[in-house]
Amino acid sequence: MELQKRIRIYELGSLPPFLLVFAGEIVPVNHRWNQHGLGGDNFRGLCRDLHPGPVSLLHWSGKGKPWARLDANRPCPLDALWAPYDLLQTPFALDS
Fold first, then answer.
1. For the range 51-58, what are the long-range contacts, defined as Cβ-Cβ under 8 Å and sequence gap of 24 or more?
2. 67 near 89, Cβ under 8 Å?
3. An example Gene Ontology cellular component term from the record (predicted)?
């Protein structure tokens, strides 16, 4: 982590250090607990839907972040779930 602070050695956010810390002792998390991928398709920028059934955690993993899409007036439908928590209160109007 000290090296990463001085010279960027990876571009994948927090995943590489977590994989090193846990040394492969990881298991997949059921999608009911972690609805990942709401950041959309990293290549085409497509919006994604929720998995069927209950979800405990909404995770905007990927390049598409709700605050950026709302600020650009190009939101995905599920970005409206994040909008009430936007401390900057974007001018985007959410239609119900």
1. 55/31, 56/32, 57/33, 58/82
2. no
3. Golgi apparatus
Tokens of 18: 């977590």
**Integer Cα distance of 94 and 90 in angstroms:** 10
Burial annotation 9-24 (CB, 10 A radius, 16+ → b, else e): eeeeeeeeeeeeeeee
Phi and psi dihedrals of 84, rounded to 5? Answer: -65, -20
Average pLDDT, the chain: 79
CA quadruple 35, 38, 41, 45: dihedral, nearest 10 = 170
Closest CA to 16 of 1, 2, 31: 1
Residue 35's pLDDT band (boundaries 50, 70, 90)? confident
Q: What are phi and psi of 67, to 5 degrees?
A: -65, -35
